[in-house]
Design goal:
Chain lengths: 178, 39
């Protein structure tokens, strides 16, 4: 059969299933008024690259979400260019051997958002990262980020942490790329 | 004053003193709004 167009009643062979490129690894509903969310069992040797998406929910303040791998609190590098919706002003930020990937997502009273790709987080190599930032409110900003984690360690979990305040609700989706 | 809540998978609980100290070390504050370039 011609992937990905299947007909009702088709038998899915191993070749068909192994050709599926993106698998949902885990979903995690965010609780009430939490300042950090640790998602365990997210990364394994089954996939090399991952996408993490978090949308929905609300925040007690308008600020940014941080992301860390395992218990590592060092070696985070990133370049972040963003544009203010209201003014068009372009600004750059850097994470230079930071304690997290700061500013990687948005926590807003009107909605939270995070969209991250990680390259090799479960491999004993340095993890690459790209992210799309999209604040969900008229006074927010949009932008793009790329960087890496300068620690050659394999991780199985990650943590999303508020820069201030707390978040409530929404769902974190973790996908593995074949 | 109670400490913030931490979530580990489906478990939500108040942070321990150690976890709260680690959070404060990141510069976290309870109620500051400072998203970059907010007009």
């Amino acid at each position: 059969m011609t992937y990905p167009s299947f007909a009702s009643g088709d038998v899915l062979t191993a070749a068909d299933m192994n050709a599926v490129g993106l698998w949902l690894v885990k979903t995690q509903t965010v609780g009430t008024a939490v300042s950090s969310v640790n998602v365990t069992g997210a990364f394994s040797s089954s996939y090399y690259n991952y996408r993490i998406i978090y949308t929905g929910g609300t925040s007690s303040v308008d600020n940014d979400l941080k992301l860390t791998l395992g218990a590592s609190a060092t070696g985070y590098y990133a370049g972040f260019a963003y544009v203010a919706y209201g003014t068009g002003t372009v600004t750059g930020l850097a994470n230079n051997n930071a304690t997290s990937w700061a500013n990687i997502g948005s926590q807003r009273t009107t909605g939270n958002s995070l969209d991250v790709d990680l390259f090799g987080p479960n491999a004993a190599f340095r993890t690459g990262m790209t992210a799309r930032y999209f604040g969900i409110s008229t006074g927010a900003v949009g932008g793009g980020m790329g960087g890496f984690h300068n620690v050659a360690t394999a991780y199985t979990d990650f943590t999303i942490t508020c820069t201030s305040g707390n978040i409530t609700g929404g769902t974190i989706y973790v996908y593995g790329y074949k | 004053m109670s400490k913030p809540f931490i979530q580990i998978d489906d478990e939500v609980r108040e942070m321990t003193d150690e976890e709260y100290a680690e959070l404060l070390a990141t510069g976290w504050t309870p109620d500051t709004s400072v998203e970059p370039n907010e007009p």
